[in-house]
Amino acid sequence: MKKIIALVTGGFTGESVISLKSAAVIGRNLDPEKFDVYKIIITPESWYYEDENGGKSEINKNDFSLTLNGSVVKFDCVFIGLHGSPGEDGKLQGYFDMLNIPYTTCDALTSAITMNKGYTKAIVQDIPELHVAKSIQLFSNNADNAARLTQNLRLPLFVKPNNGGSSIGMSKVKAEADLPEALAKAFNEDTQVLVEEFINGREFTIGIYRGKQGIAVLPSTEIVSSKEFFDFEAKYTTGVTEEITPGRLTPDENLRVEKIAKAVFEKLNCKGVTRMDYILEEGSNNFYFIEINTVPGQTENSLIPQQVRAAGRTIQDFYTELIEAALISKK
């Protein structure tokens, strides 16, 4: 019998546009022989099912059910394709936990922690062979922030919303005079801001997932951006960035980063598929942790689908495994 899947998308942040694009790709690649899929859009105003003709039916939030043509639809599993809040910060996960409905991402606690870049770095910083850039976490946009930052950190600096995604509100700062503008931009997106030292090296990202056989790693992707850094435009505009999958790593470097990635995934108690961004520092060949994304993008330009294909798998089979692993975890 087919499993009934809710494909959740939308959201409360600027990443909602990316969520809708991800959901379109996910929906096209869920096996119709195994799953009946209902796209559920969550917005600040309403939660609703949208059919192929654009018709809308409200979700019953008491039990996350749907009534269509007089029949009640209840879901066996939720495929979360919603970036940012409430799909990536633990809010939806806690809701589904209370309803005992399995889902394809990390649990509520892990989702909440990993959404906070500063807290995540504090947890992973003692993993062997993994380094973290020196940083300061700010909780308010005070007038003395710029002076404090330049006294304690070395320019250039990355200024980023601590709980944001898709590099929205992020800046690279080379001069102290540019810090106030960068801080204002980041605080416009979040109440907390993380400022960290720039690490000179090549940027990569690696997919890690928990499948039916346990934790597995996908091939790394090397990010070669024509822009100053891998910002929103570079991530989602075709041609701005060269993405090389598998990335140009030596066999030894591949083994090292796979070991590190699995350790990060395990220490944070991740589930589903995640994507760890990292830098291979020039000269030292040290691996520096940037962040982990617990609901990575699944758009046509996204990195996880590239890595799945590079691993010799189909996207359909990969998504099937994520759903089956989620269902097993609830038994």
UniProtKB/TrEMBL annotation:
Protein's GO biological process: cell wall organization; peptidoglycan biosynthetic process; regulation of cell shape
Keywords (A to Z) from UniProt: ATP-binding, Cell shape, Cell wall biogenesis/degradation, Cytoplasm, Ligase, Magnesium, Manganese, Metal-binding, Nucleotide-binding, Peptidoglycan synthesis
One Pfam family matching this protein: Dala_Dala_lig_N
Pathway: Cell wall biogenesis; peptidoglycan biosynthesis
Protein name: D-alanine--D-alanine ligase
Cofactor(s) of this protein: Mn(2+); Mg(2+)
Cofactor binding note: Binds 2 magnesium or manganese ions per subunit.
Main location, first listed in the record: cytoplasm
Positions annotated to bind Mg(2+) 2: E291, N293
